[in-house]
Amino acid sequence: MAEDRSQQGLLASFRLVIIGILVVIIVPALAFIIAAIGRSIVADPSDTAPVALDNSNTCVACHRKTTPGIIEQYSRSSMAAANVTCQNCHEVEAGYPGGIAHHGSFVLTVPTTAKCATCHQNEAAQFNASRHGLPAYVAMWGAGGLSEAHLAIYESIPEGSFNPDRMRNALFEKEGRAITKFACSGCHDIGAPAADGSIGQCQECHLRHEFSLEQARKPETCNHCHIGPDHPQYEIYIESYHGIAYLTGGDDWNWDAEPGTLTVADFPAPTCATCHISGFGGASTTHDVGDRLTWYLFAPQSQRRPAWQDNQVRMQAVCSECHSAAFIDEFYVDADALTEEINRRVQLSNETIAPARQAGLLTDEPFDQPIDFVHFDLWHHWGRTAKFGAWMGGPDYVQWHGAYEILRDQAELEEMVRELLEESDLAGSSAADGS
Ligand code: HEC
Ligand code: HEC
Ligand code: HEC
Ligand code: HEC
Ligand code: HEC
Ligand code: HEC
Ligand code: HEC
Ligand code: HEC
Known about the structure:
single chain, mainly alpha, 3-stranded antiparallel sheet, 21 helices, globular, disordered N terminus, binds heme C
């Protein structure tokens, strides 16, 4: 018995030693391995060492002193690692439109799409074929001022010339350049032509000089422009299930994954870029943000886009990485029905004000009568918002910032038209009285 016990004691302490060894060696080793795997899956850009930019490059040597921030940012970009130089984007020959003389060479202060296109032809071509290109610019200025070459590009964009939104152009005139330079242009210059004739501002999404995929893929990048009462896509996204997944789990997503290789392992839920830009599932990467859309949702009354069936296939290829075909089909049927219902309500508002227009009680001048604003808000804010809310998963925007406001504005329009007609009747009858 005593022998047994001491043997057991020996065995027990032997076990303890083994467990001790396990704890001391294997646990840290495991922790190390897990951490290493974690790092390779979640490549945090702040962990990636900046590349040392070559001081024999004259721009680098001098700008290290004058604008160290730019050197620091650029050294973190994958383009710096690929030996793309300051000159590749900035330097131009003498006489190049917009070039300025600078320490023995000529540079562009703001490199244009033409410079990016020397290496990124596809991205530039897709961008030019999208409403982020010239259509965004024409939305403010109209097509009248375009050069012949630009007009030809504009007209070649299948979804480009759709521009019924004259009311909005009217605001551009009405507010004046002192204001619109900071307002409309702050968003719509994404498609402005540059002095060299090339179109658009890639840096609206690829903030200089890091050119970070993580930054471009995050919804906050789109938030600069896709917000507000008339196109609250960011707010809608944030309250959608997709946005909740992003807000609560996004820290662990693989933001720097190689473009064109993204799967649900990298992104368990989509961001704006996943649905509209990234290669994902059966859809390949595109800088044409209209490539997957079926309706002109921004229009007062939405119509189908050219080749909308093909676009739908591409968008649904994204959804179907995470949802079943039956789920997606049902979703599209329901969202189509909502879009048509909003069309009908906007049509009703047009019919409501028609008698006042026929009676000559509405001036031709836009935005000079209270009724103009109510009629505009009904489709431009609430109609759009209800549609966007349905298509991108924000019930609050469908309801309280959408359908409810449409009902309220419709009631107000009916009241306003009734008053206008009554006043003109009174004026008419008193004129007939001769008083
Ligand atoms: C000898 C020093 C020196 C060299 C070499 C140099 N720069 Fe500069 N650069 C400056 C200074 C100084 C400024 C002005 C900074 C300021 O206003 O704070 C400047 C401004 C700029 C600007 C902004 C211009 C503007 O009008 O806003 C750009 C773009 C630029 N440099 C690019 C380059 C590029 C590209 C090269 C290489 C081809 C280069 N620089 C070479 C010193 C230099
Ligand atoms: C991939 C293209 C690209 C490369 C490479 C590049 N830049 Fe730029 N740079 C830009 C763009 C685009 C802008 C304009 C951004 C804007 O105004 O929003 C810019 C703007 C600037 C400005 C003006 C900033 C200001 O606020 O006045 C300076 C200075 C400048 N770059 C210096 C450099 C230097 C130095 C290098 C090399 C270390 C470099 N750039 C490399 C694209 C590039
Ligand atoms: C001289 C050729 C050249 C020019 C000019 C150039 N790029 Fe690049 N760019 C590259 C190369 C090469 C890569 C690939 C880097 C890699 O994947 O390792 C790249 C990668 C990128 C990426 C992806 C970054 C990533 O982490 O995968 C973006 C975004 C980008 N460029 C934007 C621009 C923009 C915007 C401009 C113009 C302002 C521009 N580039 C001008 C050569 C160029
Ligand atoms: C905060 C950014 C922002 C501001 C400021 C802004 N817009 Fe827009 N605008 C957008 C976005 C984003 C869309 C696209 C909405 C969509 O497609 O659903 C748009 C759509 C439009 C459209 C409809 C599309 C088209 O091409 O016909 C017109 C017209 C328009 N804007 C004109 C203007 C005018 C004029 C101003 C200034 C009075 C202005 N916008 C101010 C971001 C902005
Ligand atoms: C509306 C925002 C937006 C604009 C504007 C934009 N990009 Fe991008 N770009 C993105 C996003 C998002 C990605 C990442 C795509 C992905 O997830 O794979 C990207 C990726 C890229 C890449 C890497 C693509 C690849 O397959 O390796 C290049 C290069 C690039 N952009 C160049 C440009 C150029 C050049 C322009 C201007 C003509 C431009 N971008 C304008 C959002 C934008
Ligand atoms: C600098 C402002 C700006 C930024 C940043 C921006 N957009 Fe846009 N976007 C616009 C404007 C302006 C329009 C409307 C152009 C028009 O129809 O006239 C638009 C239109 C669109 C459209 C509708 C295109 C169509 O064919 O009707 C989509 C989709 C879109 N943007 C997606 C995005 C995504 C995704 C991002 C972020 C990765 C983004 N945008 C970033 C300004 C911006
Ligand atoms: C789950 C995928 C998904 C996400 C995430 C998403 N969208 Fe959309 N988006 C859609 C669908 C689907 C439509 C409507 C498509 C149609 O017309 O068939 C749409 C419509 C739009 C439109 C309207 C274009 C028009 O016709 O007026 C814009 C602009 C837009 N999205 C921008 C964004 C922005 C910005 C974000 C992020 C803040 C975002 N989207 C997030 C799927 C998505
Ligand atoms: C990368 C994966 C992914 C993609 C791509 C994706 N979704 Fe989702 N979706 C999710 C997740 C995760 C949820 C939250 C699931 C839940 O309800 O628990 C969700 C939820 C939804 C919901 C709400 C479901 C409910 O229970 O109310 C709708 C509607 C939806 N998605 C539509 C779409 C559409 C339409 C597309 C394509 C335009 C799309 N999704 C693309 C991952 C994805």
